[in-house]
Amino acid sequence: MSTNQKRFDLRIDIFERKAQWAKPLPTLKPAELVEAILQEFQEVEYLSKSATDYYLAQVEDETAVLQEDVSLQEQLPNESRLQLREVERPLPKGTSRPSQAIYVRELVSGKVYKLNWLPAIIGRPDKNQPNDDWIAVDLESYKTGLRVSRRHAQITEQNGRYFIESLSRNPTLLKDAEGNVETVGDEKRPLQHGDTIQLERSNIALKFIVRSPENV
Asked: Of 70, 65, 84, which Cα lies nearest the Cα of 27?
């Protein structure tokens, strides 16, 4: 394909990063543009690596969601402004949406888990265990994942503050931004943006992220 083809001039709101310029080929499909956005903005620590976690919509008309299999030129005019949005997962029974967009990021792989509901369980799936659909961070596929308890820890929210508690005797540590480390027991511990949840036996570390303008 010729690189001399005329390109679209688009502005894209990538959450708190507003009006980012993009010059895609008009023949590009929205799903391909999402993949390019995720590649370009890898430094944004709350962005997933999976394009299926997102979709594009026009800012001027919030109901105008782009069809992922139809080219940009067939759906919108040049110089449009778009918005990257997250796919909203259905709530399991007994849970609720967090008051803010919150995530954990596995520090070695960089994999991001959005916490779409609270309480959110960190662990491994097991249909014989209660609240199996509350698992928001499934670590079973990791090399050391079988060292993670099925119900390892749980994140909750109360009055706009986040907390973590252990659901297992399998050790969980919490390290704050200053490097202070404490053991997480069955009593709730405050959880702040930038804290690291360390699952000691599996050596898996998860950074807790609150998406807000001051954290960009």
From this structure: 70
Mean per-residue pLDDT, 163-178: 96
Q: Please report whether residue 209 resides in a domain.
A: yes
Give buried/exposed letters for 169-186 (b at 16+ CB in 10 A, else e).
ebbbebbeeeeeeeebee
Q: What is the CATH number of the domain that holds 20?
A: 3.10.20.90
Domain that holds residue 16: 10-86
Distance of CA 19 to the CA centre of its chain: 21
Can you give the pLDDT at residue 213? Answer: 73
Confidence of residue 2 (pLDDT cuts 50, 70, 90): very low
Number of structural domains, the chain? 2
Q: Quick one: tokens of 89?
A: 């997962």
Please classify residue 204 by burial: count the beta carbons closer than 10 Å to its beta carbon, then call 0-12 exposed, 13-18 middle and 19+ buried.
buried
Q: Which residue has the tokens 């907390």?
A: 163
Q: Is the pLDDT of residue 201 over 50?
A: yes
pLDDT at 13: 96
Query: Is cis: bond before 24, omega within 30 of 0?
Result: no
